[in-house]
Amino acid sequence: MDDELNLRLKPLRERIDAIDAQLIALLNQRASVALEVGEVKKHFNAPVFRPEREQQVIARLQDMSAGPLAGEHISAIWREIMAASRALEQTVRAAYLGPIGTYSEEAMHEYFGQSIEGLPCPSIDEVFRSVEAGAAEFGVVPVENSTEGAVSRTLDLLLQSQLLIGGELALPIHHNLLTASGDLTGVTRVCAHAQALAQCQRWLSTHAPHLERQAVSSNAEAARLAAADPTVAAIAGDRAATHYGLQVAYSLIQDDPHNRTRFLMIGKEPAGVSGNDRTSLIFSVKNEPGEVFRLLEPLARHGVSMTRFESRPARVDKWEYYFYIDVEGHRDDAAVAAALAELEQKAAFVKILGSYPRAR
């Protein structure tokens, strides 16, 4: 049987080898052109990473493909090809909530590819500071979770910072219960980020009610603690388990099987129009009846769809709020530009956080 199998596979493998030879030649040819692009960008002091351009490339290739590769396969392949090309042009660094092994790190690689250089930070505040100070070109910050809602600190820092949103990613969150031994023998407490504990509270109450719950700065920090102490279990993902040498005692313990976290990519450069964009902004209004409705009316009149509405206390007076909204389209699109112009005239305060390609 083995002889017959090898006999039938041999010509197919030879065809694959021949195609691979063509692919590597074409990829190197593409990389050479990318280096030329990098030289032109240096001459004009243009940014290496253009998220709208990369999204357009991927969308065009997905439309061209007749299969059997699906759209997500093409996206994954070309993301890495473009990341490798960027790395040839210039080292690009992204700050994220560390340590190594967090979902923020996973989101960074999912968005920028494996060739990005990561800068782990101890807090979301430090991610913003690192980008503002030039230690990293981009930052990766969580902004909302499908189970627990908005990440308040990120919203507050978006208000305070001059950085712009340049991209977004919705990452599926698969929580595992990790221990050094692979079971709960001798384990007395479980550590995780507060949001992860909240996302798994029903499972923990049902399957491990005896474990003390302790919130820590990140799930990766919880994994580090579990690796050092056999009495500690951690809630974290596969990346943390691998990095810290832990075993999965229980997998997929999140209460919501569709649990996702939305991450924002922040930086100093605005993103151009990709054709599939989102614009985020903050505004405040006078504390008078009907003011919010009056302010949002131009969006409906100009046909601009609002996809998110969130409020945060202004902390400057009683019952004053900042409103965070997302709308479909780029601020340079005619309809969006007209609606925003009216909104800016009517609002007490408006800050546009950025227009950027919508999550792939």
TrEMBL record:
Q: What is its EC number?
A: 4.2.1.51, 5.4.99.5
Q: Which SUPFAM superfamilies does this one have?
A: ACT-like, Chorismate mutase II, Periplasmic binding protein-like II
Pfam families according to UniProt: ACT (PF01842), CM_2 (PF01817), PDT (PF00800)
Would I find Cytoplasm among this entry's keywords? yes
Record bears the keyword Amino-acid biosynthesis:
yes
Q: Which residues form the Prephenate dehydratase domain?
A: 93-268
Pathway(s) per entry = Metabolic intermediate biosynthesis; prephenate biosynthesis; prephenate from chorismate: step 1/1; Amino-acid biosynthesis; L-phenylalanine biosynthesis; phenylpyruvate from prephenate: step 1/1
The record, for CDD domains, names: ACT_CM-PDT, PBP2_PDT_1
InterPro entries of this UniProt entry? ACT-like_dom_sf, ACT_dom, Chor_mutase/pphenate_deHydtase, Chorismate_II_sf, CM_dom_sf, CM_II_prokaryot, G/b/e-P-prot_chorismate_mutase, Preph_deHydtase
Domain of life, per the record?
Bacteria
Catalytic reaction list: prephenate + H(+) = 3-phenylpyruvate + CO2 + H2O; chorismate = prephenate
Name the keywords, alphabetized: Amino-acid biosynthesis, Aromatic amino acid biosynthesis, Cytoplasm, Isomerase, Lyase, Multifunctional enzyme, Phenylalanine biosynthesis
Where primarily located? cytoplasm
All copies of the ACT domain together span: 280-357
The protein's role, per its UniProt record: Catalyzes the Claisen rearrangement of chorismate to prephenate and the decarboxylation/dehydration of prephenate to phenylpyruvate.
The protein here is known as Bifunctional chorismate mutase/prephenate dehydratase
Native organism is Paraburkholderia acidicola
